[in-house]
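User: I'm writing a short report section on ligand binding and want a predicted complex to refer to. Could you take this sequence and uridine-diphosphate-N-acetylglucosamine and write out the structure as tokens? A short remark afterwards would be nice.
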Amino acid sequence: MLVSIVGTRPNLIKLAPIVRAARKDNLEHHIIHTGQHYDYELSQVFFEELELPPPDTYLKVGSGSDGYQIGETIHRVTKTLQRLKKPAFILVYGDTNATAGAALGARKCGFKVGHIESGIRTGDYLFPEEINRVISETCSDVLFAPTKSTYENVRSTGRAVLSGDCMFDTLLWAEPRLDQKLLSEFDLTPREYCLVTMHRGMNVDKPSILRRILKALEDTGEHFLFPVHPRTKKTLEKLQVPSSIQVTPPLGYFAFLSLMKYSKKVITDSGGAQKEAYAFGIPSVILLHVPVWQELVEVGWNLPVSNEPDKIRQAILEFWPRGKRPPIFGDGRAGDKILQTLHQEYDKLLSG
Ligand code: UD1
Ligand code: UDP
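Assistant: Sure. The structure tokens for the complex follow:
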């Protein structure tokens, strides 16, 4: 059987193409949710919209320090996997604490592991995600790299496969379900607003830094739609939000993509949102000092500005990329390619 271990919003979006590919193959697919994200808007809504089966096992790890989340995930994943009655291949997704804990737990129990979205490198170990990437890759037998440059980063391991990007698969699947009419619910006009998301500690944990970013946005005179991640909400509640910044709770996937598709610009520190904006041809101003997707900076569609107010203001007013958008993230069939690779190499585990 195949076992997928997920825990967060972006993990679920990456899981969706694997669910569809496993269904096509009539493969038994067991889903373990670690419970790192538990709010309806960060978890259940994705099961509903992406047509995912409910998790077979829910581990309720919840919130806490990186050490707590990774430690508890290892512990609870280990206990769950040891109870499996059949041989299994384990898939883990992305770079969250759920991913690193799951990969370590599975490996320690002696399972074969595949890591989806392998090979991203920013070189900045102050980001918990960078450590999670290295842990997850080290514990994995197959590294599914989404793009050419991520593949090059892990090629020398001899375990890398260039699969294409699962989030891009999901976006293409979702596109016919997007709806411009939704803009009227938010009183928005196409191309007359920018979409903002932020949830990285460096941008949102200190009120003084978040205030500075909001002020930089306000100074541009643009209108912003800002779906707020729960981590950001805690700090935002201490601040006065400028009236040009329209705040909403986290959006469902179809609503988020619909509102992105008709926006003027995306301002974000999200790894996923950067890719989605590229797919729609929307310029992205990146609130990070090192980009997650180097290719997007090279083709000119992403501009990293960190959280420096002058750079943020200037980018929002003046960054208008016009270059080509080569197909960096594959052809929308990463899920099928991943399953094909697993059948070739691990068919006994999958069908056992
Ligand atoms: C995590 C990932 C990050 C990913 C992001 C996607 C790590 C280290 N970080 O960050 O890589 O980009 O998810 O969204 O794994 N909270 C709620 N409800 C929830 C979940 C969280 O209120 O359902 C609050 C809690 O106060 C929690 C805080 O948000 O302490 C942060 O949540 P956590 O899962 O630790 O990290 P994220 O910032 O979501
Ligand atoms: N997303 C969403 N609603 C929101 C914000 C984000 O549906 O309000 C989706 C969006 O598709 C994005 C994905 O969640 O790409 C993951 O976003 P997040 O920023 O949480 O995680 P990251 O990709 O940075 O790890």
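A remark for your report: The chain has 16 helices and 13 strands. The first strand starts at residue 2 and ends at 6.
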